[in-house]
């Protein structure tokens, strides 16, 4: 798997280089800074951070060279072998439609960056968006992450025998399904939430007969108590690859801490670094909406040490980060974080 992952990353770096070169955002003999490159490409302001992450990734591996704030090509970059995507995605355990969709996105990248149309529009053309986004998470690495998170949920105790679970950003239910399987023998009150009724509606249709299930909209950036989540009402909060969407992470973690009693558990999964393949694909969904403020940082993801500090500041103790950096599964850049609320 790791060989295929490395090949996919190199291919995606080649895609970035190809876009910059073929649009003449950065011609072969030119030296330009990030602002000039975005201007030449015609990047929409909300997507400018994506191109800056491209430049950082290309510089890190030596495809681009720095000269002060300016960047240039030390040698002509090789064209990426986009036709290899179906093989690579298959080896990584993704459904076949993900390779087709990524190929479409690559063909349209300049137009997507210019906001001539959106990735959401392209996803809708690919069929049911819940199924499309679910396919993005159906791979060997994410399956292992969700299984590990679910294993850690299984032994969580509840004072009265009824385990109260709040899932944030449940989306296409990939984390949900793993956790519900692990908790199938437990008496539970499980509240599935998401910011979009598209996902809560789909979850309700699929899980309406599951004992103890509730479904509700919830915005990470608003008061949880104003959205029906009472203080100290939960034993376990689950968040599968969603906390990076919080506009104000300290506030969001504070809301999670407030809804848990002392000793309550937070289990979440997150990427800890850029993924070149996703920078040419799904990371476009991380750009702010048209009517929202621009991102304050180009960094979409945080390293484990930064998570430890953020959790500590919010009243949590970080008990475990899995997998360890030395384990093969760590290559995908995803981690499970296991934290416990501590007494203030």
From TrEMBL:
GO terms for biological process: methylation. GO terms for molecular function: methyltransferase activity. Pfam families: Methyltransf_12. Residues 166-266 form the Methyltransferase type domain. Signal peptide: none annotated. Keywords: Methyltransferase, Transferase. The keyword Repressor does not apply. It comes from the Bacteria. This is Class I SAM-dependent methyltransferase. The lineage of its organism: Bacteria, Pseudomonadati, Pseudomonadota, Gammaproteobacteria, Pseudomonadales.
